[in-house]
Amino acid sequence: MDSSKLVLYISMSLDGFIATNDDDLSWLSIAEKEGEDYGYSDFNETIDTYIVGRKTYDVILNLTGGKLPQASAKDCYVLTRTPKESENGVTFFSGDIPSFINDLKSKKGKNIYCDGGGEVVQLLMKDSLIDEYIISVMPIILGDGKPLFKGGINKIDIELQSSKSFESGVVQLHYSKR
Question: Over its length of 178 residues, how does the chain's per-residue pLDDT go in tens digits?
Fold first, then answer.
């Protein structure tokens, strides 16, 4: 692989939210089905680096009892405005994000997984750093919450790579940057 791609792999409600206003993610369980991981295992084989925003990192720690599951097998970075020492296999980054992402992309290895949240997605989209978007649209309308796409960016031309619907009602969309 010549250079790595930054891939946003995330779930959202039909109306575009990734969490409720109080960071509740329990609605994601509506799609849980024995033996179905919506391609996550296959996707996980294509990545060796994991990036997440600090707020999303805090939510994950709260849900998992204080550990970032990806930290045991991947290079993990938390994008934050506040400098912090590395901990538990996680590096906190507060510098120039475009330079940092382009440096990660230039290294030999697998792809880079971005898991959100909305502020990080917006920052990455502002500089057109996301190469692929894999979005699982959940069969629920939340009505309000934390949006995946916050706006305030320039137009980005993308093209559909695939779409897949599942028995649970989930529709997974895979786009790449033109």
Answer: 578 999 999 999 999 999 999 999 999 999 999 999 999 999 999 999 999 999 999 999 999 999 999 999 999 999 999 999 999 999 999 999 999 999 999 999 999 999 989 999 999 999 999 999 999 999 999 999 999 999 999 999 999 999 999 999 999 999 999 9
127 burial level (CB within 10 Å; 0-12, 13-18, 19+): middle
All structural domains of the chain: 6-26+36-177 (3.40.430.10)
**Could you tell me whether strands 171-177 and 132-138 are parallel, antiparallel, or unpaired per DSSP bridges?**
antiparallel
| Helices (runs of H) and strands (runs of E) counted in the chain | 4, 10
Query: Is residue 146 a contact partner of residue 18, using CB atoms and an 8 Å limit?
Result: yes
